[in-house]
Amino acid sequence: MDNVKKIHKSDISAFLKFLDFLNEGIIVIDHDRNILYMNNYIENLLGISNGEGKHFSEVVKNNYLYSIISHEYSSDVQEEIIINDKKFLVKIYHIDDKKFIHLTDITPFELYKQAKKDFVANVSHELKTPIAVLKGVIETLNQEENDPAKKKFLNIAEKRIDQMNSLINDLLIIARLESKEDKLIKKKIKLKGLVNSIYEDLAPIAEEKNVKFFNKIPENFSIFADESKISILLKNLIENAIKYNKEDGTVQINGYEERKFSIIEVTDTGIGIPKESLPLIFERFYRVDKSRSRNIGGTGLGLSIVKHIVEAHKGKLEVKSEINKGSTFIVKIPRK
Ligand SMILES: Nc1ncnc2c1ncn2[C@@H]1O[C@H](COP(=O)(O)OP(=O)(O)O)[C@@H](O)[C@H]1O
Ligand SMILES: [Mg+2]
Questions:
Q1: What pLDDT, on a 0 to 100 scale, did the predictor assign at position 275?
Q2: Distance from the CA of 189 to the center of ligand 1, in angstroms?
Q3: Last residue of some domain: 178, 210, 239?
Q4: Residue 7 shares a structural domain with residue 115
Q5: What predicted TM-score, i.e. pTM, was given to this entire model?
């Protein structure tokens, strides 16, 4: 607050004029929500003039803005709201007994984010067909080839094509989850059978490592969710539980209800996740051990997809892990 003292009283009016030049909104209200100050930008945005001295409710007709500002927050807050088709970041600072409300137009940033998403979705979509064709060609060549040296190269090519295919499939899943048109189609899903059918596809990689799979979900346990998305979620969690397991390890799935949530737990006896990596594993492309992960195969996108699906259901996602003992991923989906 020392800086404040350096501004002379006669500078204040110049300072207020300066605030009118800003391309962001500033409102100051007192404890009783009377408006002490608003700059030009906010007056233009909300279509008001001479708001100062009036009560906030008289002047601000935007319900959402009104509700976040009226809330008795004890600490400083930050929210996003839409006014006149533009998206604003609203920050509220409490200084002495006043609230300083600061609005920044983040529409350009949102448009940029959307353009980036569209680009990734389009590129992935365009790559899908050529890669499928390549895979067909290489597979045919490989089947007809008898020379072991040439077969070795064709096998490498096939493996790499499979990797690209997984990456593109994961990117397309993310693009679909992020698209505005994407809606959840919720229904009652009987989980035990769904888990069994997902495991069928993953059984070969479990058998390679002699990993045993236990589906402990009760016969009549069901959740209310989007079946195709929950399938993607389960596939990713079970696949990880197998891939990052040890030889002769186990994977166990449980399902139960706890107050407002249906809970699914996927537990493995694998390599575990270091503490410092736990906050990062849900980030796109993050993999704990890059060199080892490369051999294991994967895209680094699986858990970010899982997180996305849980959030779309307004659920919660937790993980417990201990190095060399194993990990448990806990998915909580709200009950009906
Ligand atoms: N069950 C697990 N046990 C140990 N590590 C895991 C487990 N699940 C995920 N991880 C770690 O988190 C990283 C990110 O997982 P994910 O997003 O599914 O990507 P991917 O499996 O393609 O590498 C993995 O590379 C791995 O290091
Ligand atoms: Mg994975």
A1: 95
A2: 26
A3: 178
A4: no
A5: 0.81
The CATH number of residue 79's host domain is: 3.30.450.20
Give the residue, 73 or 203, on which the prediction is more confident: 203
pLDDT digits (tens, 9 = 90+) for 65-89: 888 877 766 667 788 999 988 999 9
Overall average pLDDT of the 16-45 stretch = 93
The pairing of strands 222-226 and 86-95 is: unpaired
Of 240, 278, 307, the one to substitute when testing ligand 1's pocket (max ligand atoms within 8 A of C-beta) is 240
Residue tagged 């020392």 (tokens): 2
Q: Which residues line ligand 1 (CB under 6 A)?
A: 236, 240-241, 244, 268, 270-273, 281, 286-288, 293, 298-303, 327
Confidence category of residue 124, pLDDT binned at 50, 70, 90: very high
- Which residues sit with Cβ closer than 5 angstroms to ligand 2, an ion? 240, 298, 302
Q: In which domain, by residue range, is 57 found? A: 2-105
Same domain, 27 and 71: yes
> In sequence order, which residues have a C-beta less than 8 Å from that of residue 165 and are 6 or more positions away?
131, 132, 135
CATH number at residue 117: 1.10.287.130
* Position 332 pLDDT exceeds 60: yes
Domain boundary residue, one of 88, 105, 122 = 105
Q: Are 209 and 287 in the same domain?
A: yes
pLDDT class for 199, splitting at 50, 70, 90? very high
Residue 246: DSSP 8-state: P
Indicate whether 254 pLDDT > 90. Answer: yes
CA angle 329, 335, 336 (to 5 degrees): 150
- Same-domain status, 218 and 261: yes
In a shared domain, residues 146 and 81: no
Closest ligand 1 atom, CA of 301?
A: 17
Please tell me the residue having the least CA distance from ligand 1 atom 8.
240
Scanning the structure block, which residue is given the tokens 């796109």? 284
The number of folded domains in the chain is 3
For residue 324, give Cα distances in angstroms to 122, 268, 274, 318, 327: 41, 11, 10, 19, 9
282 in the same domain as 210: yes
**What is the predicted pLDDT for the residue at 62?**
82
